[in-house]
Amino acid sequence: MRVKKEKKHVHTLKNNLYLLKEVHAASPGRIPLNLLVVILKSVSNFLFDVFMLRFVINGIQTGAAFQSILVFILSIAAYHLCVCFFENWFNEIFAPVSDQKIIRHIQKKVFAKASSVEMACFENPAFYDRYVKAVSEASGRAMQVVGSLAGIVSCVFTVSAMSFVIFTIDPVLIVFALLPFAVNLLFGKKQNDIQYEYNMEMQEKSRKRDYVRRVFYLSDYAKEMRLTNINKALFLKFADAVRELKAVIKKYGWKIGLLDYLFQATNDIVVYLGAILYASFKTLVSKTMLYGDCIVVINTINSIAWSLRGIADIYLQFHGHALYIDNLKYFLEYEPAIPENPDGRDVPERGSLLLDHVSFRYEGQAADVLKNISLEIKPGEKIALVGHNGAGKTTLIKLLMRLYDVTEGEIRYDGVPIREYRLRPYRERFGAVFQDYRVFSMSVMDNILLKDNVTDEERTRAVDGMENSGILEKIRSLPNGADTILTREFDDGGVILSGGEAQKVAIARVFARPCEIVVLDEPSSALDPLAEYNMYEAMMKACRDKTVIFISHRLSSAVLADRVCLLEDGEIAEQGSHFELLHQNGKYAKLWEKQAEKYKEEAV
Ligand code: ADP
Questions:
Q1: Whose CA is nearest to atom 21 of ligand 1?
Q2: How far is CA 245 from CA 238, 253, 395, in A?
Q3: Higher pLDDT, 135 or 558
Q4: pLDDT, the chain, mean
Q5: How many CA atoms lie within 13 A of 348 on its CB side?
Q6: Helices 66-89 & 30-46, crossing angle to 10 degrees?
């Protein structure tokens, strides 16, 4: 996003202040102490580079007493030692701890927001891009903003203190010191604008390159990368991105380089050499400048020019930070389309679910995925959703759980539109396992209960859950039983389960969870038909009083449902019990026959 030029400075200031406020909230001492360190350090440098040289050499030239020089040097040494001690304490002890506090504070906000935004956000590339940037850079950038602030304070101090001394030596010298500033005023704005455009284009082009880099190192892609030729195609994309980046560098490199050259030429030739010539003349020819003053001029004039340049550079850094902070602010200030609704109604323990003429379309898509669906699911009913891939089964259960809101129509729970309930308690009524379930790098027990502060009762429920899902024996055989860590991310002794075993752990979650409505989105694809049937049978037994909605491609499990709904192209094509539908001899019956034939063939 290109911010309007006239607003750029305000935007930069506002955004950086925003992040500084977060830093202050996380670690209140960080900013003042950091500024104190740089000021004390700048004073120390000033004393060494300017004050001490001037005092000692002028003293020698004018015949000052050695004692006064000794006292002066000892005082500076004492000050310097104290500052060094303070600086080291700050850098090695205070700042690293403060960094961790800042990381925790900002990441906590990002994580809280990430889990509250609606699912659709993760499918929106623009939003997702901002989200990834916000998460990956959040805390590091906060530290950089503090660093830039400290840098600018140090530069401002150096410029003011040294200019003052130079001015007291000879006011004409100020012209030399300020010359680069004038050049900067003339060309700096142009340079800032070019640098800004350059950063923006580089950032945009780097996205493609970074995507490929991610794919190469993320384990999610490891199989495809080894078994297919996609790595070649990806590498071509990478090379393309690098080519584009090179073009951007070529486009801006010369302009930036020339402006830089102009600054350096003014600074090195006119300012530095000019000031030395002027000071030498005053000292040697007109004899109106003391040796100490002459050395101070030679020593400081360049520092003033570079510190002025430093201020301009840091200002550019603040622009860069502001662009990033846009992402973080956008993300943190985003109002979820499906909000928590803390003032909403309490959610009843039990109730029927009613889809009333529901239609749904994914954001940015041309057609509805669900069309005018009306369906009532009574408390305790067992419903099987069947149909071909893409018919809309998963979408339907996502709507029931309010992971998305309907586009048209209404979903009611116990007669009340679900958007009137408090969101989290409503979702807690459901226990769900999806086909793309995830196993966490935690113990088996944690993976089943998915919560902290586990009670003994919950542990017992988890063990029952494992028994019902058919994984208990396997887990008991592991070295640490249910406390064994899954995956080897953090623990070399971690266990990697097979696809079917991991699925059973995921299914145990639903058995172990005290919920009223169980949702199973084909969590059994990695189980063999018999294991799947047994699992569903156990599920129906354990959930006798609960509502169960399950999606299964193997119709043998649909037999266990009170009612089967056949979805086709986002509509309910047929519904009834398994036997009613067989009797109707319609689409479901044909599907059943086809599958039965397949199993017969496999059995032969
Ligand atoms: P099923 O579970 O019956 O296989 P889904 O509900 O997963 O079907 O998908 C129904 C249709 O919606 C499919 O055409 C699918 O491509 C599309 N779809 C699913 N998820 C998304 C999404 N996040 N964004 C856009 N389209 C989607």
A1: 362
A2: 11, 11, 40
A3: 558
A4: 88
A5: 12
A6: 150
Spatial neighbors of 377 by CB under 8 A, at least 6 apart, are 352, 353, 354, 383, 547, 549
* Residue listed under structure tokens 């102009």: 262
- Tokens read off for 275: 């000031």
Nearest CA to ligand 1 atom 12: 369
Q: Are 387 and 567 in contact (CB under 8 A)?
A: yes
Pocket of ligand 1 (CB under 6 A): 123, 362, 365, 369, 387, 389-395
361: left (phi over 0), alpha (psi -120 to 50) or beta: beta
Compute, in angstroms, the gap from residue 232 CA to the centroid of ligand 1.
29
Residue located nearest, by CA, to atom 26 of ligand 1: 362
| Closest atom of ligand 1 relative to the 370 alpha carbon | 10
d(CA 443, CA 450): 10
Amino acid at 408: E
User: What does DSSP say about strands 382-386 and 547-551: parallel, antiparallel, or unpaired?
Assistant: parallel
User: Residue with the nearest Cα to atom 23 of ligand 1?
Assistant: 123
Which residues have CB under 8 Å from 28's CB, separation 6+? Answer: none
Of the ranges 52-56, 177-181, 253-257, 437-441, which one carries the lowest mean pLDDT score?
Answer: 177-181
For 479-514, write each residue's pLDDT tens digit. Answer: 899 999 998 877 777 888 988 899 899 989 988 988
Q: How many helices (H) and strands (E) does the chain have?
A: 22, 10
Closest residue to atom 20 of ligand 1, CA basis:
395
Gap between the terminal Cα atoms of the chain: 64
221 alpha carbon – ligand 1 mean position (Å): 22
β-pair partners for 408: 359
Q: How far apart are CA 104 and CA 121, in angstroms?
A: 24
Q: Give CA–CA dist 65/79, Å, rounded.
A: 22
Ligand 1 centre distance from Cα of residue 111 (Å): 26
Only one residue has tokens 């496999």, namely: 602
φ, ψ (nearest 5 deg) of residue 477: -80, -10
Ligand 1 centre from 389 Cα, in Å? 9
Mean pLDDT of 408-430: 95
Residues 6+ apart with CB under 8 A from 420: 341, 344, 345
Cα dihedral angle (279, 285, 291, 296), rounded to 10 degrees?
0
Cα of 395 from ligand 1 centre, angstroms = 6
What is the secondary structure of 235-258 as a DSSP string?
Answer: HHHHHHHHHHHHHHHHHHHHHHHH
Closest ligand 1 atom, residue 119 Cα:
23
Torsion, Cα of 533, 535, 539, 540 (10° steps): 20
Cα–Cα distance between 7 and 361 in angstroms, integer?
38
Residue by residue, what is the 3-state secondary structure of 565-596? EEEECCEEEEEECHHHHHHHCCHHHHHHHHHH
CA of 596 to the centre of ligand 1 (A): 27
Candidate of 121, 370, 394 to mutate for ligand 1, largest count of ligand atoms within 8 Å of Cβ:
394
Which residues, in sequence order, are CB contacts of 571 under 8 Å at separation 6+?
A: 370, 371, 372, 373
Interval between CA 487 and ligand 1 midpoint (Å): 30
C-alpha gyration radius of the chain: 35
